[in-house]
Amino acid sequence: MKKIVYIAFFIFFIAQKLLAQDIHYSQFFTSPISLNPAKTGLFNGDWRIGANYKNQWNSIPVAYNTGSIFVDFALGEKRNSMIKKAGVGIFLAQDVAGDGNLSTTKIQLSGAFHQVLDENEKYFLSFGFSGGYVQKHIDFTKLYWGNQWDGTQFNTVLNAKEPFKAALISYPTINAGVEFSAILAPNKFVHSGLAFYQINRPTETFYQSENSVGIKPVLNLGGSFGFNYEYELFTEFYFSYQKTATEADLSVIVGKNVSDSKFIRVYVYAGLMYRLKDAMMPVVGFSKNNLRVYLNYDVNLSGLTPYSTAQGGIEFSVQYTYEKERGHHFRRRLPCSVF
Question: In the chain, what are the domains?
């Protein structure tokens, strides 16, 4: 237990330095319990911990950054005609974005239940729920408004005449998700999941007006394919929309085992990710047994390219999974992504 406490403290200390905007990772698949609460505890091991960081828009005066950490635990295992397993987890994130230092702090607790659907243990259905708390703050004194233009420059002494209500707001969020996964063959599986975020439609506004956060459906499809423990191929697709905003991402990553040992597997990865009408993201990675690290860079391809000079942002993720030694005790292998 001390080991997980030390690792969690270390990663959370790093995450505190990573201030950012709304969560928007290119490596969406490396933050599983924020992607879909049904993924909580859906991995081979006893617990896992991970952190993500993204720094973007360095070509503008105030860069945007995102940092988060998650920990989840696999609970209970029952051998009978229908295997059952559950999971619990926690997700923490902190953001600061733009000239007004718009900061967002999120905490999310999640739980999931995983049920095998057949006697051959190839098909699984997972259900998950999460509840969270969001707090946002903005520094209005660092922003400029039309009423503060004196004909020559922006004069912050002038009254902005904006109907501000509060500089600090907070609200609860409720989310739910479902995921189906299937083992096609040893080291080969596919999955599909659908999650709904902010289903309670909380109010979010700094002004004296009403603004409900829209429900955000998130679709995730993917697969993991291993070939003779020499090569691995991963592909993931993401689609979400919220009110009038949509996002679609596709990633393809290939890994090669560079270790001569049958007991220690060391993979190097290379791949490409693409966000529709927005960015292209080359990615590289490394893994050794239960530790995985990925690094990518976003190359901006949107209408902002003339201003960003194609610069997007760098993104980094690290994830570690722990599993106790159980001797000859049989432990079922779950159809879960190595991410």
Answer: 2-322 (2.40.160.40)
pLDDT at 210 over 90: no
Q: pLDDT tens, 56-83?
A: 766 555 667 889 999 999 987 654 444 5
**Tens of pLDDT along 153-205?**
887 777 777 777 778 889 999 999 999 999 998 889 999 999 999 999 998 88
Close Cβ partners of 47 (under 8 Å, ≥ 6 residues apart): 4, 71, 72, 73, 74, 321, 322
End-to-end CA distance of the chain: 23
Q: What is the pLDDT of residue 61?
A: 57
